[in-house]
Fold:
Amino acid sequence: MPTGQSPTAVPSLRERRRAVAVREIVTAAEEHIDGHGPAALSLRAVARSLGMTVQALYHYFPSRDSLVTALITKAYDDLADAVGAAVDAAPDTTALPRLVAAAEGYRAWAISRPERFQLLYGAPLRHYEAPVDGPTTQAVQRMSAIFRRELFAGFTAPQLAAIDTEDLSPSLREHLGSLPSDALGSLPPPAASLFLSAWGHLHGLVVLEVFGHTAFIGTHQAEIFRVAMTNLLKDVHRRIPAA
Structure:
């Protein structure tokens, strides 16, 4: 072993057992949400399904909010994994743009897990406040980074700064420019504005489908979504000046 390096600490038996218990509690809570919806999350029901008392559950999650935070973080991470896998699975030779593949991965995860998607983007749980700059924020930033990368891949910073987004007010430019670098990846204000608009379009279509508002389209919803995402990408790239 090189001088100055210490061996990786092996988790103790107690730590391993705790990690297993935490995973079992989170899985049970996810199953409860899948069956009853996020608003009906009950720590007592989760504990009962595992054959433990609520007091024992509090030993691993000291409050309802701590369990909700773990559930939201895991849901965002699972969603980001699905988006990343969809991009990685798209062959380089395909005519399907990687941004569209990412969007379809997002949609597929959402419609296959509507209750967990509602946990993320439905009505906020009463009395719950996510920790500022905590794990939920970090998980969102991870997913956002994938979409930023695929939306603006191949363009330089000067090109993004010269995007045609109509006239942004000075106050909006100042606000977008003052956001933390990890919020929108240090995008210049025109690119940040365009990214937020594109995200709203993508996410809005998925929300409409998950909540059943586009059921009248029937089996054509996937095609409608792909066409919309393809056109969105073309419109975004049309607004970016040539190098």
Summary: Residues 12-62 form a domain with the Arc Repressor Mutant, subunit A fold (CATH 1.10.10). The chain has two domains: 12-62, 64-238. The radius of gyration is 21 Å.
